[in-house]
Amino acid sequence: MSSDLLRKIPSVDELLRDGEISALAASLPAGVASGIVRRAVGELRDELLSGGAEGALDALAGTVRGRLRRLMAPSLVRVVNASGTVLHTNLGRALLAQAATKALTLASSGPLNLEFDLGSGSRGERDSRVEELVVALTSAEAACVVNNNAAAVLIALNTLAEGREVVISRGELVEIGGSFRLPEIIEKSGCVLKEVGTTNRTHPRDYSEAIAAETAILFKAHTSNYKVTGFTAEVSLKELVAIAQDNGLPVVEDLGSGSLVDLSVYGLKKEPVVGERIAAGADIVTFSADKLLGGPQAGIIAGRKELVDRIRRNPLKRALRVDKLTLSALEATLRLYLKPKELAEALPTIRHLSRPLDELEATARAAAELLKGRLGPGYSVEPRRGESIVGSGSLPGHTIPTWVLEITHGSMSPEKIFRLFLDGATPVLGRVSKDKFILDIRTIDRVEDLLPF
Questions:
Q1: ∠ CA 398-403-404 to the nearest 5 degrees?
Q2: Across residues 158-162, what is the average pLDDT?
Q3: What transmembrane ranges does the database entry give (predicted)?
Q4: pTM of the entire predicted model
């Protein structure tokens, strides 16, 4: 390429004297703005050397301005979830209850008794209050908390089976969000994975025949994010516990979503309930706090005191522990379960999953009229019956009747309408389906939130 283009690249100092760049850089620490400019200049030089066009040179100052503005603006912003996925992993999963956000404010605004026993006046255990609530709600003997459920599985297996075999059905070797796979977590825990059965059928004898001197745990994973149907067979927890007890082995179950209540009470498909799995004989149960439980991101380990105490003493517990903000929000969320009659109103996850159809229809019709007035001519906004999903690997294959808005425009594609709503002052996330832009009303508490501008 011609060296003329390279000679046209402005110097770092020249760019820093640009009016808008200079104004943006004025409030930044020394070296921050010049570093951004230097990197942009270096990238441009590499691009031109690779045959890039002169247009890239013309865009250099704009690129620097954009990077400086992005650096100074918050990257995490509120998003209105009208996608039809109630627990949207990419949007942070469960919305916290008002009680939990108040607890977060308290925990973040001053000192608190995180690891201090006010009764004895000495050091305390940071998980103690959450443990007390989990034990009360599940009838487990003991409990502790780590930063997510994958960490809960990791530390439980590392504590109870490091260097030894973990026996699990091939049909339960799940892959969770972000391409994290259970076999890899088992491997990282320092255990030896021993698969039994087949993808679609596993029998009690498969476990019995696999047990050897090196077997440390019989492991069961709830397939919360997929469903195998047809010619299938699964070993129940009750059967697995009987096999384990005959061989003097513990059963560890990864429940994933981990519901504390029977969701069928709210008109949903029943998911395994933590307390019922403890009662059925699981020695350790691990589950997430930010899915069906409706709290902050955390992994809860509940079960036999002897085993939980061993897990608590594992040095990994220090590395995986949660902070005061998580513990405060989790404690406040768990306390809501002590008043089951008020749970559906107090906990956003349960409220959104169980909203009645007549309420959703009324909200959809009100939102349709509001959007018609705001969007103007050319747009069609029609309320329709639809289906929501729970999301975050919860209740796979289960849909919930809902009301949606179908939005179309005579000369605009649904993808462009999707972009219009996402580019608003407060981004609104819908979805495109069957050549229509869809807004699901299930998670919308205020119709005004759907306005894109």
A1: 105
A2: 98
A3: none
A4: 0.91
